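Marked as duplicate of an earlier ticket. Keeping the data here for the record.
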Amino acid sequence: MAIQLKFDNTPNLAPVVHSAARMVVGFLFACHGVASLFGVLGGAVGMHGGAVQFGAWPGWYAAVIELVGGVLVALGLFTRVAAIICSGTMAYAYFSVHQKAGLLPVMNNGDAAAMFSWTFLLIAAVGPGRIALDARRRVRTVPVVREPIPVIVGQGAVGMHCPDV
């Protein structure tokens, strides 16, 4: 006789895990930005613990996107836009820096860039989840009630038409 496990009465944790994963990914991304901009938390990658020089292309701009984008994604504020920008930044980093060293991420040290890029793309596609500032800032609209408009149809017959707005 096989033992069956039933989870019908367990709470659905997917919305909480969804939001928590978004927060963690945003926080980790922001940490990369802080490290690169201020030389803390181990400093910028490839800078031997230092900070990226102000205005240096593309490192300084990427670090600003990492910090600001990571914070926005972690808070769930303008999440989709921030996640798309973060995803593109990491895709650019992967193809312009890491791809030269080898075909696969494991060969070229680009696994973090690839994972961040795809994770942010996923966040942009599925949204921030329930626990997000975006959920608070959404404007609740009242449904529009459309009044029928009399329309002349054919030989003097009158019909009603509800326009789509």
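See parent ticket for discussion. The chain has a mean pLDDT of 85.
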